[in-house]
Design a protein that fits this description.
heterodimer, A: alpha/beta, Rossmann fold, five-stranded parallel sheet, 9 helices, elongated, B: alpha/beta, nine-stranded mixed sheet, 31% strand, globular, binds flavin-adenine dinucleotide, binds adenosine monophosphate
Chain lengths: 327, 249
């Protein structure tokens, strides 16, 4: 069979991360188009039961690497586990979601297999027997089509770009793999996970993002952003000006030196639309801008804009959404 | 304590890079080049650790296809003690860069090797972990807090919504994220001193390319922006459009 694909499926605390299922779905789509197979590898402690969801997304086979030492993420051990699964599956292509874990793990696998990583792909296409990854460079100011000169090809897939499928089998073949004791050892194990923003919707995975900028003029005014986000079940973002002023933590910064997001809906409140901010969000499907300056650059890329004072428009928008969405 | 910092020359983030006539690289014409913003955090952290220790050396290493010295000179002006410039390699093939860096770093014998979390041109997040692999060292990426305790590096790294805590034994590799520190500007005295600091230039040995760039192009243009209206009165229409036209809520 030509070029089987293996997908690393990320779980944290026994829950599969949605972007991994998007990656399985995309792998399954490509495999159907090229007559090859898709398997998945899941690594952790007590993760056997997760195979069904991975099957539904399109994996025909799931390799389970269950080890108490893998309860928390451990780069080198996880990497060796995935390489072992690739060997068993005969996989020449590896997909991972471009999450914090996926981006951390992929280059260590590349090291073990003598390859490199095509990071944050937004499109994958077959050209004969080559699999080309389209990926943003310079924070999306340009896109590059990348192919691998030798196998394996390692691709990380940007969350929220590839649709998740659910028509696979809930009973995929399952094979448990054991690692040699020494192989499960890691030089860089995670010792602890410290909660910083429990309960919030994660920016890079959210389907709606509400961001605000310096135009809100003081940290206490970000409440209006948060209230709008709450009505929409959205994640919150900020411009760098706001982060540098210390009004909001850097984890909320969107842009070239912050997070890159591609939600279905991005609402920018009192953000001017500097090139570095646009770089982080201009691949959003629909962009709404609220700004009192009709000439603000953000309006050039906004699908819908309202020229007006955020202090007036945002609370009105929140009320209107409450009215139409919650009855 | 010997500290190494890996520094990449990248297009200024204000630049709107254009595709070169070959259709698969960035046109260098008219671009202003700067130190990769994340590498400034790495430089600053190395300088602070040396200052705190009261002794030591900070070595800056850069791989640059054009063999351009400018950003290493700026790093020297910030306070880095010496530079090693490897002429050659590739702007986008992280595996090639990592092999070249590892080749130099194995002779530097640093206690700590600092990187930026990501180069803002290649955006590939892979060089630090690949170098760690080649040198057999532990590593922590996207670090916002670093503390050296004897032979241990205690790192906090950013993940979705949370932070991971790692304790690595030195020597080790750390890639730096914004929030770690506030990088300094070079002083006039630093700029003068930098001219006399040692900067060694090496020719890159040939290294097998792992990837090939077939094409580069700007993203498709977004449809021209549309103003729905002014002020509070435009809100109901906006909500209607989001529901009925865009169907996103
Ligand atoms: C190396 C580098 C990296 C950078 N990386 C990033 C990045 O990752 N992300 C990022 O965002 N920026 C980044 N920047 C900064 C960027 O250049 C801008 O300075 C920043 O995005 C501006 O933030 P802002 O839009 O909130 O503020 P401003 O540019 O000050 O805009 C405020 C806007 O609010 C509007 N406004 C004011 N009052 C109101 C009101 N009452 N109602 C409605 N609208 C109002 C104004 O008309 C204006 O358009 C970077 C810069 C550099 C040099
Ligand atoms: N050509 C280079 N020279 C020196 N350091 C580099 C080079 N390329 C990448 N790096 C380092 O690796 C980090 C991550 O880059 P990347 O993996 O390309 O996103 C950068 O922030 C630098 O610290």
């Amino acid at each position: 069979m030509p070029d089987p694909i293996l997908v690393f499926v990320e779980q944290r605390d026994g829950k599969i991360k949605r972007p991994s299922l998007e990656a399985v779905s995309e792998a399954s789509r490509l495999a159907k188009a090229s007559g090859t197979s898709v398997s998945a590898a899941i690594v952790g402690s007590d993760v056997q039961a997760l195979a069904a969801d991975i099957g539904k997304a399109g994996a025909e086979k799931v390799y389970v690497i269950d080890d108490p030492r893998f309860k928390r993420y451990a780069a080198e051990g996880y990497a060796k586990a995935v390489v072992e699964a690739m060997r068993r599956a005969g996989a020449t292509r590896l997909f991972l979601a471009a999450t914090a874990m996926g981006k951390d793990l992929a280059p260590t696998i590349a090291g073990l297999t003598g390859s490199a990583v095509a990071t944050d792909c937004t499109e994958l296409k077959l050209d004969g027997d080559r699999l080309i990854g389209r990926r943003p460079v310079c924070a999306g100011k340009l896109f590059a089509d990348v192919a691998f000169k030798k196998s394996p090809g390692i691709y990380t897939l940007r969350p929220n770009v590839f649709p998740q499928s659910r028509d696979g089998s809930a009973t995929p073949a399952v094979e448990t793999l054991r690692l040699e004791a020494s192989d499960a050892d890691s030089r860089s194990p995670v010792k602890d996970v410290v909660a910083t923003a429990a309960g919030k919707v994660e920016l890079t995975e959210a389907s709606i993002v509400v961001s605000a900028g310096r135009g809100l003029s003081a940290p206490e005014h970000f409440k209006m952003r948060d209230e709008l986000a709450a009505v929409l079940g959205a994640a919150v973002g900020a411009s760098r000006a706001v982060v540098d002023a210390g009004w909001r933590p850097h984890a909320e910064q969107v842009g070239q030196t912050g997070k890159t997001v591609s939600p279905n809906l991005y609402i920018a409140i009192a953000v001017s639309g500097a090139i570095q901010h646009l770089a982080g969000m201009s691949s959003s499907k629909v962009i709404v801008a609220i700004n009192k300056d009709a000439d603000a650059p953000i309006f050039k890329i906004a699908n819908y804009g309202i020229v007006g004072d955020a202090f007036e428009v945002v609370p009105a928008l929140t009320e209107e959404l409450k009215r139409v969405l919650h009855h | 304590m010997i500290l190494a910092v890996c520094i990449k020359r990248v297009p200024d983030t204000n630049a709107r890079p254009q595709v070169a006539p070959d259709g698969k690289s960035i046109n260098p014409q008219g671009i202003e080049w700067v130190i990769n913003p994340y590498d400034e955090f790495a430089i600053e952290e190395a300088l602070r650790l040396k200052e705190k220790a009261g002794t030591g050396e900070v070595v800056g290493v850069s791989v640059d296809p054009d063999g351009n010295e400018s950003i290493l000179r700026k790093a020297l002006a910030m306070g880095v003690d010496r530079g090693i410039l490897v002429k050659g390699g590739s702007m986008f093939d992280g595996a090639v860069t990592a092999e070249l860096l590892a080749g130099v770093l194995k002779n530097v014998k640093a206690d700590l090797i600092l990187f930026g979390k990501q180069a803002v041109d290649s955006d590939s997040y892979q060089v630090p972990s690949l170098v760690a692999h080649h040198l057999g060292l532990p590593r922590a990426n996207v670090v916002t807090k670093l503390e050296i305790q004897g032979t241990k590096a205690v790192c906090r790294r950013q993940i979705e919504g949370n932070e991971e805590l790692l304790e690595l034994s030195t020597p080790c590799i750390v890639s730096c994220q914004k929030g770690l520190n506030e990088p300094r500007y070079p002083s006039l005295k630093g700029i003068m001193a930098a001219k006399k600091k040692p900067l060694e230039v090496l020719e890159a040995p040939p290294i097998e390319a792992r990837i090939e760039i077939l094409k580069m192009e700007p993203p498709p243009p977004r449809p021209p922006g549309r103003i729905v209206g002014k002020g509070r009165e435009a809100v109901p229409e906006l909500v209607r459009l989001l529901r009925e036209e865009a169907k996103v809520i």
